[in-house]
Amino acid sequence: MIFVSPQSHKELVFNKNILVSTDGTENYSVIKGVPVLLPEKTNPDWSRELIEIIFWEHPDVITNIYEEIENDNFDDWNEVYLKYIKEIHGTKENVLKVFYSYKQKETDIWITGDKSGNITKKQIEAFEKFNKKSIGEKRTVTKINGTGSLWDRYRYFGELVCKEPTDKILELATGAGGGTASVALYMSNDCDLYTVDIGFDCLGNALGIAKYQNKNIIPVCANFWYLPFKDKSFKTICTACGLDESREIIETLKEVIRILADDGRFVVVSRNNAFMRQHRILEPFGFTEKETLEILKDCRMYSDLNNLDEICDSLGMKLISRKEYRDNENIAHSVSEYRK
Prior knowledge:
By secondary structure, the chain is α/β, with parallel strands linked by helices. It has helices at residues 49-54, 59-72, 77-88, 92-103, 107-111, 121-133, 137-140, 148-161, 178-186, 203-213, 249-259, 275-282, 289-298, 305-314, and strands at 12-15, 18-21, 27-31, 34-37, 168-172, 192-197, 216-222, 234-240, 260-271, 318-326, 332-339. Helix 2 (59-72) packs antiparallel against helix 3 (77-88) and helix 6 (121-133) runs parallel beside helix 10.
C-alpha cells in the first residue's frame, strides 16, 4: 500500500470501505471506488485557479459563479467571471490589491479555511455522467485521436511517459481525461496508473477510460500540494496541463520531488506561457502580458516555461528534453521531461 495521510504521512490501510491510519487515529472515505484523501476542510472540487485567487476572500462568490455557469449553460465562462470581478473589485487597482494580499498568505491558511470536505450528491451525479461518457470514443479519445498538433502532442506525451518500464505511474490532473487516456493507451497491461484530481467528478473519467481501454487506472481525490503517497514511491510522474490549471506550483513541485524515486522522471505538458490561458480575464482590466506573468509568478501560479525550469532546477530536477507543439501563432505547448 502506497497511500499515506495527506498531512501527517501516516501509512493508510483499507478497513472495509474506508482507509485508516495504522495507528487508528485517522480515517478517509472511499466513495464510488475513489479514495478521498484531502486535508481537513478542503473542498473536493475545482474552480479556475485565477478565479480562486481573485475571490479568495469571497468564497461565496466563487460558489455563485459556478452555480450561474452550470444553471445557465454559458458557452463563454469568461462573461460570468468578468461580471463578478467588475461587481466585487471594479478596477485594475483593486484587483492588484487582491493579488498583493493573497501573495502575503501562506498556503495552509488558504486551503484550511471554512470549507466543506463532503462529496455532494451533485458531484456524485456528475461523476457517474463522466464515467458513462468515457466508456467509448466520444470522450476518452477525443483529445488523442484527432489530427494536427493536438493529436501529435498527446501521442508524444503518452509515449514519453511510458518509455521506461515501471509498475506504476502517477498522473496529476485527470480533468477531461485526455492525458489519462494518452498514458493508458501506451502503458503496459501490468502497470497501474494512479490519477489525481481535486475535483471528485473529474475522476469519473478515469473509471470510464479504464473500462474502455481495459487498463488498471486508480482514481484518487487529493490536493496536489498534499499528495497522499509515500516518499519515493513513483519512478514516473506526469501531468498534461495540470500545472497550468493549479495554484501553489512550488508546493506541488516539492511534493513531486518527495514522492519521486531517485533518478525518477517528471513529464509535463504545459503552455509556453500562461497568458494564453489567463488573458481574457485580466486584459479587460488593462493588464499587459508582462504584468500578468509577473503576477502569476508572485502568486505562486504557473507563469511560463522559464519559471517552471527555475523552480524544478532549484528542487533538484534537471530538464533533459523538450518538444514544442504550436496550435497557431498565438498558442504553443511544450512537452518537457525532467529527471530527479
